[in-house]
From TrEMBL:
One of its GO terms (biological process) is receptor-mediated endocytosis. It is a single-pass membrane protein. This is Uncharacterized protein. It comes from the Eukaryota. It comes from Bugula neritina (Brown bryozoan). The lineage of its organism: Eukaryota, Metazoa, Spiralia, Lophotrochozoa, Bryozoa. CDD domains: LDLa.
Length: 181
C-alpha cells in the first residue's frame, strides 16, 4: 500500500527544493540538476538519479491532468499522443477508433482511414514512409525540380551544384553518374 505521508513529505520537500536552483517552470532532480518541467513523467529518465520518472503513475490508476491511461498496462501516456499515428500503448489502443483528421502544416497525410502524418519532405523521396505506401504514389507529376536543381532517377531534387561533386547526394547515386573529371 502506498505510504501517503511519505508522498506528502516528498511533495513538500520538492516544493522547498525546487526554488533553490531551478526556474519556476523547471524540475529539481534533487541532486543539483535541473531539467525543464515538461520532461517530468515523460517516460524518459532525464535526471541522473531518475527522480523525474518517480511517482509519476501513483497507485496505477491516476494519471496526470495531461495524460490518459493505457488499459492493458495502466501506463500513462500524454493525451496528445492519442491518434497521432504512432502506437504508444503496448497494444496500440491509443490509435484505435481515431477519426480521420488533417495533418498539421508541413506534414503529409498518408491515408484518410488512419491518422498517419509524415514530413512533407519525405513525399516522393523514393522511400516508402507511409505504411500504405501513399507517399510514393503519383510522384512523377509532383516532383518537378526547379531550374537550379538536378532530378535524380529516384525522383529527388538536389541542387545543381551538388551534381558531380564527388558526394552521393541522390539516394540512388545518379548525381555522380556520367561525370567528367
Amino acid at each position: 500500500m502506498l505510504n501517503y505521508s511519505f508522498l506528502i513529505f516528498s511533495v513538500v520537500v520538492f516544493i522547498f527544493n525546487s526554488g533553490e536552483g531551478c526556474s519556476i517552470s523547471g524540475f529539481d532532480c534533487g541532486d543539483g540538476q535541473c531539467i525543464p518541467g515538461s520532461w517530468q513523467c515523460d517516460r524518459e529518465v532525464d535526471c541522473n538519479n531518475g527522480a523525474d520518472e518517480k511517482l509519476c503513475n501513483v497507485g496505477g490508476d491516476i494519471c496526470r491532468y495531461n495524460q490518459v491511461k493505457c488499459n492493458s498496462t495502466n501506463e500513462c501516456i500524454f493525451t496528445h499522443w492519442q491518434c497521432d499515428g504512432e502506437e504508444d500503448c503496448p497494444d496500440g489502443e491509443d490509435e484505435v477508433n481515431c477519426l480521420a483528421r488533417a495533418c498539421p502544416f508541413g506534414r503529409f497525410s498518408c491515408s484518410l482511414s488512419k491518422v498517419e502524418c509524415i514530413p512533407q519532405s519525405w513525399r516522393c523521396d523514393g522511400d516508402l514512409d507511409c505504411s500504405s505506401g501513399d507517399d510514393e504514389l503519383d510522384c512523377n507529376v509532383l516532383n518537378q525540380c526547379t531550374s537550379h536543381e538536378f532530378q535524380c532517377d529516384s525522383r529527388e531534387c538536389i541542387l545543381n551544384t551538388w551534381r558531380c561533386d564527388g558526394d552521393l547526394d541522390c539516394s540512388d547515386g545518379t548525381d555522380e553518374v556520367n561525370c567528367t573529371p
